[in-house]
Amino acid sequence: MKVIIMGCGRVGGRLAGLLDAEGWEVTILDVEAYSFRRLPAGFGGVALLGDGTDEESLKKAGIEVADAFLAVTQGDNRNLMAAQIAKHIYKVPRVLCRVYDPLRWELYNGVGLEVFSPTVIFAQMLKEKLEQ
CA angle, corner 94, sides to 73 and 64, nearest 5? Predict the structure, then answer.
């Protein structure tokens, strides 16, 4: 399975390592070369300097044959834009997107994107812990 991850921060770097260890063909994109330091030693995938909202970067990453695309940068707008490009233009079968803003999470979930909000998830977890 081929996956493209946009964003090599803590989540993206960790996820790239996990998927690589399980045999996925992983390409991770980031606009800062320094971010690739977060990849685990022995990472067997491709670390590509580029932006997931840029058509040339996406093509270099193999978007046309990708089975999955994950947008996990710190920027909600970039994540949402890249996820929509992957889903609607390149028809990637599975597209996941991280969004911090709960209002955007609700809006974009309503239009068919698989959007996850750490803000919403963590608030719910804390509420459940409090009620125990």
Answer: 85
